[in-house]
Amino acid sequence: xxxxxxxxxxxxxxxxxxxxxxxxxxxxxxxxxxxxxxxxPEMDQYIIDNTQExxxxxxxVTAVVFDYRGFDTLGEATVLFTAVxxxxxLFRRLKK
Amino acid sequence: xxxxxxxxxxxxxxxIGLYAVIFKRNLIKIVIGITLIESGVNLFLITLAFRExxxxxxxxxxxxxxxNMSLPVPHALTLTSIVIGVAVLxxxxxxxxxxxxxxxxxxxxKIGREKE
Amino acid sequence: MSGxxxxxxxxxxxxxxxxxxxxxxxxxxxxxxxxxxxxxxxxVASGLAMLLVAYGSVWTMGKVKEKQxxxxxxxxxxxxxxLAFLGILMVFVYTSFQGNFFNNFLINQDxxxxxNEIGEGFANINTAGVIPLMNFAVGLKVIAGLFAIVLxxxxxxxxxxxxxx
Lengths: 96, 116, 165
Prior knowledge:
The complex is a heterotrimer of chains A (96), B (116) and C (165). Chain B is mainly α and 116 residues long. Chain B contains three helices and no strands. Chain B is elongated and about 70 Å long. Chain C has one domain (6-119, 126-156). Helices cover 62% and strands 0% of the residues of chain C.
């Protein structure tokens, strides 16, 4: 076993131990609310209570994507545009 | 312990993807490994959005109770992450087509070592 | 790539309008049911990719050039940013509007009568302000972008000397 292969196995083992240890120590799945005061989500509770008056939409996820966090959607549209431009440039034949 | 099963599934997906990126030599298998890591991260983002006994965040006429809905912000972040994953996969595959036309092989240990 | 047999072409002719109508339904009702611009755009783009598989890339490239697709995608991007900037510029037209970036300037007012009510959970289409217009702009951008990627990659890897049916 060469030196490079040995270093790759050690790196993989360290990342695996770290991830498994982190997965077992996470807070239990789906526990929020009054009983667990340090994890109570205040921003999401405000969004759920005030979506119908402030945006007028019935879909909470679309209201968050396009109204409360519209700037992130602008960044994502830019990434999609850059990817399409890059693919079209790579397959262009130069006219000789 | 049984309430941590979604997090163990996320760790399994990320570790299988990482194994494919480090230890395989075909270029297509490395790209599949990168896509598996992407799917694991998306699953983790969706798992953080659950409350005990909740439903989807859509308002209906008389049956919607605002104390019973899931959190809508991680759903929005997961949508953005999925679209960015598609864009990165498209660029990776076009670069692989160009590498194959130039070197005529798909083996990682045989390309890029020209000492000029 | 070359086209497929006559049975596949006939079934594609029947299934293609159904997939397009379903995708446009998902885009247009994005503010009432789960869906929206990105999801509906992916559905329509997969319907167009089915057309590409059934008829071959040489025939499809003869019908749709990639210049028209890039014009459509740029129209979608300009529409999205224009709607975001109209939130600032509406202060100069009607002085009772508030001037922010990404402001939802079409709800709760009577001067422009499009999409100006507030939804109460009864699935009224006439609600939610700027959001349906943004859904159409982003849906157009995603349709043109994804179909351009698939078409260019399929046309550039065709085999020379294969007999086209």
